[in-house]
Amino acid sequence: MTDSGNFVQLHNHTHYSLLDGASKIPDLVKRVKELGMPAVGITDHGNMHGAYELWRNAVDQGIKPIIGIEAYVTPETARQDKTRVSWDTSWVPQPHHERNPDDVSGGGLITHLTLWAENDEGLVNLIKASSVANLEGRVMRYPRMDKEVLQRYHKGVICSSGCPSGIIQTRLRLGQFDEALRAAGEMQDIFGKDSFYIELMDHGLEIEKRVTKDLLTIAKKLNAPLLATNDSHYVHEADRDAQDAMLCINSGSRLDDPDRFKFDGSGYYIKSAQEMRDLFKELPEACDNTLAIADRCNVIFDDHEDGAFMPRFDCPEGWDETSLFLKHVDEGLKRRYDGNPPIEVLKQADYECGVICQMQFCGYFLVVADYINWAKSHGVMVGPGRGSAAGSMVAYAMGITELDPLKHGLIFERFLNPERVSLPDIDVDFDPDGRMKVLDYVANKYGHDKVAQCVIYGTIKTKQALKDSARIMGYEFSVGERITKALPPSKNGKDASLHDIFDPTSKRYAEAREFRELYDADPDAKRITEEAKGIEGLIRQTGVHACATIMGSEPITDTSPLLERTDGTITTTFEYHTCETLGLVKMDFLGLSNLTVIRDTLTNIRNNGKAPIDYTKIPLDDKPTYELLARGDTLGVFQLDSDGMRALLKTLKPDNFNDISALIALYRPGPMDMDSHNNYAKRKNGLQKITPIHPEVAEPLKEVLDETYGLIVYQEQVQSAARILAGYSLGKADVLRRAMGKKKPEVLAKEKVPFFQGMKEHGYSMEAAQAVWDILVPFSGYAFNKAHSAAYGLISYWTAYLKTHYPVEFMAALLQNERTNKDKTALYLGEARRMGIKVLPPDVNESRLEYSAVGDVVRFGLGAIRNVGDKAVADIIAERETGRGKFVNFMDFVRRVPVTALNRRLVESLIKAGAFDSIDPNRRALYEIHETAIESVIGLKRKQAEGQFDLFADDDDGGADTMGDALVVVPDIEEWDKKTKLNFEREMLGLYVSDHPLSGMTAILANLREMSIAHLIDRAKTMGDGQQVTIAGLVTNVDRRVSKKGNPWAIVTVEDMESSIQCMFFGKVYEAAAAQLAIDEVVQVRGQVEVRDETVSLRATEMQVPSLDAEDARPVVITLPQVALDREHVMQLGHVLMNHPGYCPVKLAIIGEKGDAQVLTFGDRFRVKRDTSLFAEIKILFGPSCLPAA
């Protein structure tokens, strides 16, 4: 690399310099290669997040990677010292006295220093130094090293004096040459004479030019080599605007703000060697030294075999991991099978143990089983299994899973394949509260230095890029909203990128016509989009992975840097796939709220005086549970509570556990696109013929396909088919399944030959082989993991069983776990009422912190009341249960509860929520005197604390007399009206509980709408933007507005018995409805669903104020024999109905030849107004008998 005409860009900031750098690493490496440079460096601000990605990309492109960091270093203070330092001797800290811009950076907190790893020891040292800075030296957003850290981790590290924010340059700008020389000498002493460089930059900045001469002098005095760098923050010169936009996003400013932070000077891109040598033509050696450093730097990230640093299990003396593993399996089998495991179980376990021991994964199983069993023994709910691990008999024996794999037909090779060695992946569900306890246990057991959660990097997605661009360019929020609404709807949670939108070869291109039309027609939209293209995909922030935790046998900082977040969570800075590549082990600890529901239900059962149950021993053939499933009464049941799933349950009518497992596998986009879910239901109920794949394979595949009525539902069925028909081992069959699932032509062609040959050798024709191949290939991409389906099906069954047999306890648990979600709470309150369960409002004498089951009713928890904290609730409960018993009246409550639970807002909230109704039912009267009562009691309690009462008074009498002085009489005044009471109740609880303004109108509302508002909100994400739907409810707020163009419009809040939604009225729709938009008006609104940032709204297209006469709201039922229905008559009926628009639904009862009736409901656009002219026209069409007598 000694080509004197070349140059190496060593000082480069990627987008891992969060909201500062705008270089994506693949683009950076590609550009360096285009420029013919032999190497490339990475020096992100204060972190090494992108080190491995840079290394991997560079190596793959034949470019030498130089791994570094632009470190934040304390201004000669200890890293724990948060003092802001000034080196400007003339500056005096005073209000409004601004610091000298030449002074220490970061408001006196940081200087900069550039470091590169020369060898593998240096790489580890940089990782460790970076981790110490993040874990011990962070102040605000600056992870800081100090001199002690630099001295500790200097070996194998090359250092330069850094950018203008470096300690040496700062001293020089302040005229402190001797201090600058001293600092440079110290760095040279730490890193060595040959490993400390004086770094020179030239971006046309005055602060660079002012110190260049002195830097050269220092270099000469210390005989320190010079180093020319370019402070690269983006790849191409044209990317400057994107980087400038990132700075605005970072600072919350606009591009036109003259005072915002921005880069002065120019040239912060990847310059060519010629550009750099022209810039430093007077100092060619400074450019040559970039090549010299590149020559010296040789680092390797070792891509180890899977699990090279697997955590070691601490075995008792005399045992190793293998022997202890086999002992636990043997004991577990005896425990699972009452001391007498069947021979087929022993055979399967013996086979699995052989595979696991051969792969040297015994320690892995011991570690996982240990933390799962610890969790179970410490009150943490653990799921019955997740993913393919549920197919393992060993996992079942060790308590890792709760399903007998042989009983459920699960396959071990889907989990661990002896013919494709890879680390086992056992994902475990815990209740969310318990998950953190388990993580703490694991960290304490294996070492906090060997366990960390995993980072994720949040990039700027399409919608956010457009909104950010609109904001920084000075547009109003509504402009960004308007542009993003033109984006195509997301697919499976993924937005179409701007590249997809404008690339005709993209699969998403056709969906984005509306956006492109807006782009072409609207200059503002075009400007914003062009700005957004530059920032889309750049990293915006770090986060914590939802479940991935990294473990190792050695300190993680031997391999990955660590980062401490503001909440104290420690994460790796390499993403989990990189950590696994480097030999660390990923364990997935997932939080599943439904496990909390099960736990709380079990607690409610005990607290409600019922016999405790063991949920793991619930029988899987409980008839009442399957009857509940067949009715579709599964709101709140795990995985089975969506509208679509409930409708499918009614059609399917499941009567065994296999049906539940199959439903979970089939109710997904792939199988549903092929109508597999409906075909399964039809075949189960004899409505569709079961046809074999090919006559020759009908009998051989009977054992595989019988349980799914001839359909390929599970991945394991593909494996079994290959084993039976082509003689594959299950391991080899899993390799085939994976190849089929990927659908790569070259891979399929390679696998097809041995499969066809295997079937031929087993006596099947080529026609049969082709028929099987043609079925297996497409279905392999959609087939689901049966082990996962069965495991999650078990949770579904448990929750369905609890809802069936313990409905009050289950609904209380469900409400408690959704207490922060107003829409879900409303939905489940409605479900409780439908089930005939009374839900009582909160009560200071009866309620606990959480929702509770009391007899056959559910009681609101005090913790659900706004402004009422957990500590105050604990004090209230403690006083009534361990003090003098239940409160007699309001004043008794005020006198007895601790001062901590006696503040105005809290007591006011209890009053408004109705929590005193059982002892003092006049809420208005309590509201009028609560402040006076509180003040009088607090004053007396304060005097009591100061000892101003008779110390020798009788405890009982004295206490009563003392507090008796605080008696405030509750006035005898008229109570608030019903509306006021309910509004206050809703304000405190988020919804109506004791009553509802729409009480008694349930049937009318049901006939006016397609679905309740709660169901709409629940389904909105799957419905997609733009779908038309009709709702009905009470207008609770009207916000009338005027647009910039002077057009009136309104945001109208409509509420039904369960939830509320905002409806937007624009243009002619607003004009037509304006006069009827009034609070407390019952309305029927039809509109388009809109989902923006998790918020569901309705863009109104029509509104009516219906008659509230229950008779008028009845559906119109037309009864016809099947023979009377032909296309012409149906079309005529449609015209008749549409000529009488209204709000009554229309049903068609079709009578078959045998007298059986099938009832169909017409779509919402065919709702009608009941009147004699409508009935007359229908009778003319079909005869008088088609309608019931008036």
UniProtKB/TrEMBL annotation:
CDD domains: DnaE_OBF (cd04485), PHP_PolIIIA_DnaE3 (cd12113). Pfam families: DNA_pol3_alpha, DNA_pol3_finger, HHH_6, PHP, tRNA_anti-codon. GO terms for biological process: DNA replication. It catalyses: DNA(n) + a 2'-deoxyribonucleoside 5'-triphosphate = DNA(n+1) + diphosphate. It is an enzyme of class 2 (transferase). InterPro entries: DNA_pol3_alpha_NTPase_dom, DNA_pol3_alpha_thumb_dom, DNA_pol3_finger, DnaE2/DnaE/PolC, DNAPol_HHH, NA-bd_OB-fold, NA-bd_OB_tRNA, PHP_dom. It comes from the Bacteria. Residues 8-75 form the Polymerase/histidinol phosphatase N-terminal domain. GO terms for cellular component: cytoplasm. Its EC number is 2.7.7.7. The keyword Transferase applies. It is found in: Cytoplasm. GO terms for molecular function: 3'-5' exonuclease activity; DNA-directed DNA polymerase activity; nucleic acid binding. Keywords: DNA replication, DNA-directed DNA polymerase, Nucleotidyltransferase, Transferase. The keyword Nucleotidyltransferase applies. Belongs to the DNA polymerase type-C family. DnaE subfamily. This is DNA polymerase III subunit alpha.
